[in-house]
Amino acid sequence: MRSPAARIGMLLLALMLTALLGRSVWQLSMLEPASDLPRQLQDKLAASGVEHPVTAVLLNFRSYDTLLEIAVLVIAAMAGISMARTRSLEDPELRTSDTLLRALLRWLVPLMLLLAGYLLWAGADRPGGAFQAGAMLAATGVLMRLTGLPLDFLRPGILLRIGLVLGFALFLLVGLASAIAGDVFLAYPREFVKGLILSIETLLTLSIGMILLALFVAAPVNDASEPEEGEK
Amino acid sequence: MSTPLLYALTGAVLWGIGLMGLIGLRHLLRKLLALNLIGSATFLILVGLAQHHNGPDPVPQALVLTGIVVSIAATALGVVLIRRYFHLTGRTELESEVPEAGRDEEGHSG
Question: Where does the chain cross the membrane (chain B) (predicted)?
């Protein structure tokens, strides 16, 4: 246990830092903004290939962020999978044969997949997009896993690896292709903008879904089947 | 004082709570949750401040969306690491810097 003095000191420190942050927020809110970003965005929206401003920012104007984000996700998934010591990420012990659950899933899984597809498509002109659709896909996978449907593709083999890096790979490829063609890195050629964004988003959805699912599946370490350190 | 500004200030308060949890709590899962709270508070500040100035602003919103996905992945990775740590050492807390007397230091560490 910590001494009471140390606890009070920590409390005071946290309070002071919070007050500092609150004061900074307050002062920032008093300043006049230097530029009018939403209006600039509205002016350029037609050139982006999609109609929804958030999607336009994510996949066109600031696609750098999204590229780095998917890179972070891939790294997290790789680290997560390497922590899991089971040979297959699918755990046969979790399989159930509950008929009611199976019957419910038969309805739910196609609906959730359909919803993921809708979210992906809706991203072009209303809230939605690759991340929401990917999260939906991952949720479908989590549900399937928890009810014990076989998920053979989660074996840490070639298929899983390809699935994990597919979105990142295509994104990087598009960025590099435009750089090699003499344009800026990640600048889409104007005539294919819509198709490019759509295909990147589709593969991103797939990859994000698989990454999140792989991280979820990698978490439980089964005590019984755990090999000792150093043993392969 | 507008509503978005209220959100931003709430974010500052949440940040403080998260910080207190991060440095005050011992259990690793609680620390992870506190870290998540700090992340959410940051998102709230970002979106709230930008809305206060410009009305709904898609740029910080997209930034926050990116941040949310990254924080989910980071949290999941954190949970995986904590599981592994627990499995290897049998502890749910980090070792304290001052070794406590009489503490059982067994457990098959790798």
Answer: 6-25, 32-50, 62-82
* Residue range A64-96, pLDDT digits in tens: 888 888 999 999 888 888 876 655 555 556 666
What angle separates helix B3-24 from helix B28-54, to the nearest 10 degrees?
A: 160
Q: Is B80 touching A (CB cutoff 8 A)? A: yes
User: What is the radius of gyration, based on Cα positions, of chain A?
Assistant: 23
The candidate with the shortest Cα–Cα distance to A66, out of A177, A206, A188, A172, is A172
**Chain B residues within 8 A of A57 when measuring between CB atoms:** 58-59, 61-62
Going from the N-terminus, what domains does chain B have, and what CATH number goes with each?
Answer: 3-89 (1.10.287.3510)
Q: Among B11, B19, B73, select the one facing A73 at the smallest CB separation.
A: B73
Give tens-digit pLDDT for A33-71.
Answer: 777 777 777 787 777 777 788 888 887 788 888 888 899
Interface with A, mutate which of B66, B86, B94 (most A CBs under 10 A):
B66
